[in-house]
Amino acid sequence: MGDSLPSESQLCQEFSVSRGPIRQALAALRDEGLIGGGKGKRPVVLDAVPSQPFESFLSFTRRAEITGHVPGQQLQEIALRRPEPAIAAALQLEPGALAVQLLRLRLLDGRPAMLERMTYREQIGRPLLDADLDAGSIYAYLTERGVDLNAARHTFDAVAADPTDAGLLEVGEGAPLLRERRVTTDSAGTPLECSEDRYRPDVASVTVTNTRSRRADVTRSGPAWAGEFTPSAAAEVARS
Span of the secretion signal (predicted)? Predict the structure, then answer.
C-alpha cells in the first residue's frame, strides 16, 4: 500500500501491449478503488484487495488459501436438534422440525481465528453427521454432493465474546468480536443454511465501497486476514 506503479510506457514495454489496454486496466483499478493518482501523476497502490469469487466468500478454507495462509478446523460438536425459534424462522422450518447444528473452531496458520455456529435444514445437513469435518471446507463438501448453494445474505456487526467464544478463541470474556451472520439459499430462494461466525478482531476486517454508478452490481469479498488482505464489498449508495 502506497507503492507507485510503473509508468504507462514501462507497463507497455513489460507486457508488450499498446497504451490503450494499459490505460483501460488502470481505469478499472481506479474504479475498484485499488489505485489512486492520474492526471499526470503516477498511479499509487491504495489497497491490496484481490477480488474473490462467490465460493470463496462462503468458504473460510478457500479465503485462507487465496491469501496464502494455512486453514485449519476443529469440530467441537454436531447434533440433530430443534433449533431456537429465530433460526427456525430464518430457515422457514415447520414447528418442531429438526435441523443439523454444529460448532467448529477455525484456525489460521495454527492460531484460533473464528468460531462458526452453523445450522442446516435436516435433509441438507444429515451427511455432515458422518463426515470428517476436521478435513476441510463444509461448503466444498456439500457442493461436491450437488447441494445448490446459490446465494447468500451476509450481515456484519460486533458482539461481545461469550464464555464459549472466550475459551476457544483465546480472548477475554466480553472482548469485541466481528460477527458475520449468513443465510444461504438455493436457486429457488429456499434457505438451506443459517450461520453465525465470530472472528477475532485482530485477524479480520470488512471494507465497504459505495459506487454511485453501479446500483445493481453488488460484489462482495469476505472477512480476511489483517495485515495481509482487507476484504471489500461494492454496495449501493442508497440503503434502507
Answer: none
